[in-house]
TrEMBL record:
PROSITE patterns: THYX (PS51331). This is Thymidylate synthase. CDD domains: ThyX. GO terms for molecular function: flavin adenine dinucleotide binding; NADPH binding; thymidylate synthase (FAD) activity; thymidylate synthase activity. GO terms for biological process: dTMP biosynthetic process. SUPFAM superfamilies: Thymidylate synthase-complementing protein Thy1. It comes from the Bacteria. It comes from Sulfobacillus benefaciens. It holds the Pfam family Thy1.
């Protein structure tokens, strides 16, 4: 008869060691855990994880980490981890009026002016949206007044969030394995942004050196992962790829493109090169694919050889090269990108933020007299960004309305899941519009599959569903 039980209050590294012993011992997990110590676990992990390279052992140690008071810009990079599980403060349900913002040392006054300008617009658009929505959607007789106010206010946040600057401080919590955490820290340490590199170092120190917050026994707290992540360093291979492909990506001519483009079954070699170019440039995926197809075989071989020759002994193949049957090249506002970015069973390549992509206008404002004021303020805001001495600073004061291009690859079941989930009436109008176009693209190319997707048309909308 099976013997099944749960264990609790075991430090993650001891738990990983205890489970790993299943491969070396016929004893029960309970018996092993009762005899293990921190020192034994550290010695075992040093031998089998670091020396022998049994990376799967780190999958057995899971930790919960809070990452608070960071910019929305940095949070997007932290969340961009394929096996990440967590939650972030929601711009759809929380009021960010009066929020603090990330301010690097010695920034010019224009940085603060640009930030306060967006917060002022956020406040005004929120007030205008409340008035617009209250007038457009009166309270149903059966709905409680407090429920109505909460729902309409959340709808107003959906519109006002377009104006939030990306330096707005947010917080998130994540639960990951030590293996994912190590990959995440190495990736973040290689970021060109100082804030993200500092977060990576603090993340490493917070789990390897500083005592964890122990709610049940505050006086007995110790570092949560003193061994498994202690050797994490910046991902030098990621930096090498950036140095190789950024200059080349600038040579890709930009062909006409739309907000949603679907690619199916592109030739493997060309698609691999196109994804590397896409990741380090600003051109559409179709443009990168055409550029790669125009290269000679010798040029393709040489480029891939150079890229893969830089790979270190323990470096995985670049995540940019992971394949999936459906590839959607999308242009969305950053607010919608953050929602798509939470889907785990997809491969994503997000291009760097580029002020030339300009901004989206929230649909409800188009139906009101507030559209002209909104567009005029943001147009002037974008003109002023050129006064900032550093493009990285300009990224922090882009609004969530800013448009961003990214490539999202997935299989058909995941595409159906995303379309069905994100097209629902309670979804944000910006991504409802995008997933409807994704559905239409599949319907055009693969109608035999599209008819099984339970999509909600954009016109099917209930403002009181949240």
């Amino acid at each position: 008869m099976p013997h099944i039980y749960a264990v609790t209050n075991v430090p993650p590294e001891i738990l990983a060691y205890g489970m790993a012993k299943y491969s070396r011992s016929n004893r029960s997990l309970e018996d092993n855990l009762r005899e293990l110590s921190d020192d034994q676990a550290a010695k075992f992990l040093q031998t089998f994880y670091f020396d022998y390279g049994h990376a799967s052992i780190a999958d057995l140690a899971h930790v919960a980490v809070a990452i608070e008071d960071i910019s929305i810009l940095a949070a997007m990079d932290i969340v961009d981890e394929p096996l990440w599980d967590g939650q972030e403060r929601s711009t759809r349900y929380q009021n960010f009026d009066g929020s603090a913002y990330y301010r690097p040392e010695d920034v010019p006054a224009d940085y603060d002016l640009a930030t306060h300008e967006l917060f002022d617009l956020y406040r005004r658009v929120q007030e205008q949206s409340l008035a617009i929505l209250t007038d457009e959607y009166p309270k149903p007789p059966a709905m409680l007044e407090k429920t109505y106010r909460r729902t309409i206010r959340a709808r107003a946040f959906d519109i006002a969030r377009y104006c939030l600057p990306l330096n707005t401080l947010t917080s998130l919590g994540q639960i990951t394995s030590a293996r994912v955490l190590e990959q995440q820290i190495r990736r973040l340490m290689a970021s060109p942004l100082p804030e993200i590199r500092e977060i990576a170092q603090q993340l490493k120190d917070g789990i390897t050196e500083r005592p964890a917050v122990d709610i049940s026994a505050p006086d007995q707290s110790h570092p949560v992962l003193p061994t498994l992540v202690k050797h994490s360093e910046a991902d030098s291979y990621r930096v090498s790829l950036r140095n190789i492909f950024e200059p080349l990506a600038k040579k890709v001519p930009s062909l006409p493109s739309t907000n949603v483009e679907l690619t199916i079954d592109a030739p493997i070699t060309e698609s691999q090169i196109a994804q590397l170019l896409y990741a380090h440039g600003q051109a559409s995926y179709h443009s990168c694919l055409v550029y790669a197809q125009d290269m000679s075989n010798a040029e393709k071989d040489e480029l891939l050889s150079v890229a893969l020759a830089e790979r270190g002994k323990h470096d995985a193949w670049p995540r940019y090269l992971r394949q999936a049957p459906l590839q959607f090249d999308l242009v969305v506002d950053v607010g919608a990108f953050r929602d798509f970015n939470r889907h785990r069973r997809v491969q994503k390549i997000a291009q760097h933020l580029n002020p030339e992509m300009l901004f989206a206008v929230p649909e409800p404002l188009i139906r009101s007299r507030s559209e002209d004021e909104y567009k005029a303020i943001l147009t002037q805001h974008y003109r002023c960004l050129s006064a900032l001495p550093d493009p990285q600073l300009a990224s922090y004061v882009l609004p969530l309305a800013h448009r961003r291009r990214f490539l999202m690859s997935m299989d058909l079941p995941e595409a159906a899941y995303i379309i069905e989930l994100r097209s629902r009436s309670q979804g944000h109008f910006s991504y409802r519009h995008i997933v409807w176009k994704m559905y239409e693209a599949i319907q055009s190319r693969l109608p035999e599959f599209a008819r099984h997707i339970r999509v909600t048309p954009p016109e099917d909308f209930n403002p009181f569903q949240r």
